[in-house]
Write a structure and sequence with these properties.
The complex is a heterodimer of chains A (about 325) and B (about 325). Chain A is α/β, with parallel strands linked by helices and about 325 residues long. Helices cover about 30% and strands about 25% of the residues of chain A. Chain A has an eight-stranded mixed β-sheet with strand order 6-7-8-3-9-10-12-11, sandwiched between helices. Chain A has a four-stranded antiparallel β-sheet with strand order 2-1-4-5. Helix content of chain B is about 35%, strand content about 25%. Chain B is built from twelve helices and twelve strands. Chain B has helices at about 50-60, 85-90, 105, 115-125, 130-145, 150-155, 165-175, 195-210, 220-225, 245-250, 255-265, 305; strands spanning about 5-20, 25-35, 40-45, 65-75, 80, 95-100, 180-185, 215-220, 230-235, 240-245, 315, 320. The chains are: A alpha/beta (about 325), B alpha/beta (about 325).
Amino acid sequence: METILKVENLKKFFPIKKGVFRTTAGRVHAVDDVSFTVKKGETLGIVGETGCGKTTLGRTILQLYKPTHGTVRFEDRIISDMKRRELLPYRRNFQMIFQDPFESLNSMHTVGYILEEPFIIHKIDNKQQRIKNVKSLLDRVGLQKNAMEKYPHEFSGGQRQRIGIARSIALNPKMIVCDEPVSALDVSIQSQILNLLMDLQNDLDLTYIFISHDLTVVRHVSDRVAVMYLGRIVEMAGADEIYTKPLHPYTKALISAIPRHSTASNIERIILKGNVPSPVNPPSGCYFHPRCPIAQEICREKYPEFKNYSLNQSEHMTSCHMAGK
Amino acid sequence: MDSGKDIILKVKNFSAGFMKDGEVYSAVDRISFNLKKGETLGIVGESGCGKSVTALSIMRLLPVPSGKYMSGEIIYNDRNLLDLSPEEMRLIRGDSIAMIFQEPMTALNPVKKIGKQISEVFEIHRSSLSRREMERETLSLLEKVGISDPEQRMNEYPHQLSGGMRQRVMIAIALACKPSILIADEPTTALDVTIQAQILDLIKELQRESGMSVIFITHDLGVISQLCDNVIVMYAGRMAEKAPVDELFKNPLHPYTAGLLDSIPKFEYKRKTRLKSIEGMVPSITDYPEGCRFRNRCTFAFEPCALNHPEETEVSENHRVNCYKYGG
């Protein structure tokens, strides 16, 4: 399969301004040296806890934030180097679905206008054709045509997320970054939206980057999964592989902490001590070492290299000094 | 599970609702359950199912003036909590029945030091203690809930603590007077999985030590399965099913429970396959359908469902369901 997205050494730091002269007092290392590729038609899941940088990563890939360092290549173009005016027409190729369907839709506009807007911005089709497009979009995501005249507040959370999805697929994008698309929804609605996303992927040959803190949801929709901790990817492998044979102690703890009903209650729960350290001053050496149950001397000194530990042809990358030992 | 005198709390045919534009909308409709000493009872359901209203009603904390206690009884220590005067209720609240809330940032007072917020409980319920004793108790509570450097933390404000730490402080406040019932309303929903695991562990351990009963309210069936002895499934303000936790997961009877369990992605499922789902959405409180409130989304619905709300049927020992499929 061909590569659609290549991210190399991507960094995004946010300055912390202090004092009267707004001098930079420090920097939040939100995304800290991340590299990976995404193949056409696959879903890459990104999991991690609050503040691990998964949302910033998604937004930096889409150039909603200018990266501090590194490159983002989409198909054969380096989009991180593009000027704003150059980027704008290109944006139709990569879209985003947001977490909060209550905040990501403009409450002053009708759903019809919200869905027509992408066509207006990109100067596509005439009014009549645009209305036709909107109708077919609504149909595509399972909403009635009369939704056009209504406003976002007239819909439930699940329906609003359908509107957000319709907007994101309006211009036939090739890739969509889904940022916690079902986290704000009720359990019985979540599976409806996940099914819709999977159907659309099949029908429209979409590539997804699926960001979530919910490990079970990510496993279900992803081909490969990357685990983030304090701005870095600590492990990345095929979805089945990473859940059955995790290598990094953080991944192991994360998977064991998922509350679930299991008839075989033999899963050993690893309960991590303490909290995630601040991304302003990440710990020395391996960022995970202060909470790691198997940390050694070397973990305090040196950040482990991100290497392939796979025993077969597939890739199983992790950065841990103790991996494979 | 309903016999014997080890029942500590009895909710009988209880209904509550909210006033809006001169009309009362029922949020909780004729629910009944018993809580035993030392039991952990889970109440699970989606937003708007009435699980939080149930919890708040036991504490008599429904918003004033819109909240209405409509009928039924909540019996604690042979007294109906709904009949108590506000003063009498205040003596119970925080002392023998305590509650922790979902969002520890909004539940804690942002301008009061942590230590002060804990000792406040002693000032109200244990006023015979001296200032020194209160401080000592506060310190030992903070230690008990796993907060490091309690002496220093006592003098900090909520914003200086992380989400997990704040929830630990909330738990410390709730446990200050060694309550016999702890009501936990989505206490880990705002927390990350690894922190959630810490807090669930803490609640379990504290319960083992003190033998208190816990009512645990959540939308997360995984959390329920890990923590609870018995579960009540609620839908649109009514009870759908009530069973011991393993029984509920192995043998869900109500079509809603079964649908809910099926719709959650599981590790055993093949990846990227369509998930089962419950069609439609939860009806809003202002337009509940007549009869069974789940019938519009139910694949088993037949004529009787439209007429009346199904009564509770005991299908097997301790396993009760409100559904015409099983008699009703």
